[in-house]
Amino acid sequence: MSQPQFKKIVVFGVGLIGGSFALALREADVVGEVVGFGRSGATLQQAMQLGIINRIGSDLAVELGDADLVLLATPVGQMADLMVRIAPHLGALTLVTDGGSTKSDVVEYARAHLGAHLARFVPAHPIAGAEQSGAAAARTDLYQGKKVVLTPLPENAPDAVARVRQAWELCGAAVSELTPQQHDAVFAAVSHLPHLLSYALVHDLAQRENRDLLLSFAASGFRDFTRIAASSPEMWRDICIANRDALLDELARYMEELGVLYEALAEADAGKLEEIFSLARSIRANWTPQ
């Protein structure tokens, strides 16, 4: 009987991102065992019952020393402390990757805390979010056909990057590469800003005295624009703070755009409004999520 590609994988955070990673690799029959760590004993027990992990980890030294791959699938705000905890116990050949939605900060944490293990840390961001969270949200097919962005470090050995790429591809993902800085600039524009705007609209309506009346008439336009405001507040708080410089730049650009719209409306400039709407419609109509 042949050895699996990965004899042991350790996952920190067995919810949507980490749990789906584990499920996909188990479904592909390429991992011997998956060990889970997390803050919630109840979530870990649920992950066991759902077949996400083989067992719950209790001793970092025992589990990390012979692990082929470690996935950090916690909110980015927890990753610095987690790296401090795992660094003394990582095996010399153990690869580490993550699922964080920001990369410059995670790389900074790794440089500060992973020491000699930095060369085997290959940062990643799976573009496969959903509004649900927790172990029950994990899906075997979450990464099928979805993008995963690797942001390799200059210190990374080519074989480390190739092996981490292989793990995500075995989950069904299409893997691409950016620098950490490119990644954060791109996702500030196309992910982090939309979440901020969605939360802002719902928060605005929530504070009004006639909130219930307004929401009773909200339909598909409101539903589509605000769907992502159902996402984890803790996770998006961390993302916004972590990527605040790039996000502030994007927010300033958006406020300029709102200023143009405000002026066009104030002046009843129908031509300007149609010009803006037509370009936006054309771009949106021709855009297909990859």
What would you say this structure looks like, in words?
The protein is of the alpha/beta class and 290 residues long. The chain folds into 2 domains: 6-177, NAD(P)-binding Rossmann-like Domain (Rossmann fold, 3-Layer(aba) Sandwich), CATH 3.40.50.720; 182-286, 6-phosphogluconate dehydrogenase C-terminal like domain (6-phosphogluconate dehydrogenase C-terminal fold, Orthogonal Bundle). Helices cover 51% and strands 13% of the residues. It is built from 12 helices and 9 strands. It has helices at 16-27, 41-49, 60-64, 79-86, 104-113, 158-170, 180-206, 211-217, 220-226, 233-242, 244-266, 270-286; strands at 6-12, 31-37, 55-56, 69-72, 95-98, 121-122, 124-126, 147-150, 174-177. It has a 6-stranded parallel beta sheet with strand order 3-2-1-4-5-6, with helices on one face. Helix 4 packs parallel to helix 5 (104-113) and helix 7 crosses helix 11. The mean pLDDT is 94.
